[in-house]
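Example record used in the benchmark description.
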Amino acid sequence: MSAPVSLAGRADWLNEKHLQRLLAALAEGGEQARVAGGAVRNTLLGQPVADIDIAATTLPEETIRRAEAAGFKT
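Model output (structure tokens):
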């Protein structure tokens, strides 16, 4: 497995307020939420990001509840 790589300075989309709000909602109470998948790959390859996948440590039902409570459609 590769060492973690920072996307700082390479991914303006990471600063998007809706994404930050969702990540914060999913990470409440000591849980974790991270961007994963193609968005990370494409950023590292210098390609456009079409969609963003998020991996969270919460169970699916709790992830949905938190997203809805933060005002997102699920």
